[in-house]
Design brief:
heterodimer, A: alpha+beta, Ribosomal Protein L22, Chain A, 3-stranded antiparallel sheet, 4 helices, B: mainly alpha, Non-ribosomal Peptide Synthetase Peptidyl Carrier Protein, Chain A, 3 helices, 0% strand
């Protein structure tokens, strides 16, 4: 594996996400998040909004790593999967997965946090020296 | 159409520079619109114009300016 790494970071205002849920409801949730993510973000509105905001930050941080030059992959093609241990991993599908393969990116590491009204995520990926030289990234099962 | 687009931006883009101080080609992201706010703008535009943005139009450049949004909406409304 190359020593090259790609990193993306994003910060999201939790109150913004709460406002989106209140204003657009299910349409917002289902446009941006997968069924699994929605199921993982249940609870009182402020708790759910913090979890959703962290996931949105993870998607945007991943997009910064993938760096699409044309149409951006659907937000739902970048999924935060919660494992039985409670740890969270990224799973890419569709256009996001194809872009990762084209760019020779992977595997991906994810870290998320929220505090004081803000949620943040950092995504780090291995990066091959030549585009497409790596076959694909490991996708977690879950 | 432009005034309706500007009204949606004023309500949902949460710009640090007021929309009435931006021209039609002013960069909304440079004016403070975050990626998350652009989702709200997209959903509100769908409500206002009764359209749905397909994945092919989900690019930063689509939501970059009033003019680019107008061009995307024109494309969507004439293709319905």
């Amino acid at each position: 594996m190359s020593d090259d790494l790609s990193v993306g970071v994003d910060l999201v205002d939790i109150a913004e996400v709460a406002r989106s849920v209140k204003r657009f409801g299910d349409r917002y949730l289902r446009r941006v998040f997968t069924e699994h993510e929605i199921a993982c973000c249940q609870g009182p509105p402020e708790v759910a909004a913090a979890a959703l905001a962290a996931r949105f930050a993870a998607k945007e941080a991943t997009l910064k790593v993938l760096a699409p030059e044309d149409a951006r992959p659907d937000w739902r093609s970048i999924e935060v999967v919660r494992l039985p241990t409670g740890a969270c991993k990224l799973r890419l599908r569709g256009a996001a997965a194809r872009l990762a393969v084209q760019r020779g990116l992977g595997p991906f590491a994810l870290s998320m946090t929220h505090e004081a009204g803000l949620a943040a995520a950092v995504v780090v990926s291995g990066s091959a020296p030549g585009v497409g030289e790596r076959p694909t990234m490991e996708a977690p099962r879950g | 159409m432009r005034e309706q687009i500007r009204a949606v931006i004023a309500e949902h883009a949460r710009l640090s520079t007021p929309i009435d101080q931006l021209g039609d080609d002013g960069d909304l992201f440079a004016a403070g619109m975050t990626s998350h706010a652009s989702v709200n703008v997209m959903l509100a535009l769908e409500d206002a114009f009764d359209v749905e943005f397909p994945e092919a139009l989900l690019r930063k450049s689509t939501f970059e300016t009033v003019s680019s949004i107008e061009a995307a909406l024109f494309e969507l409304t004439v293709s319905v």
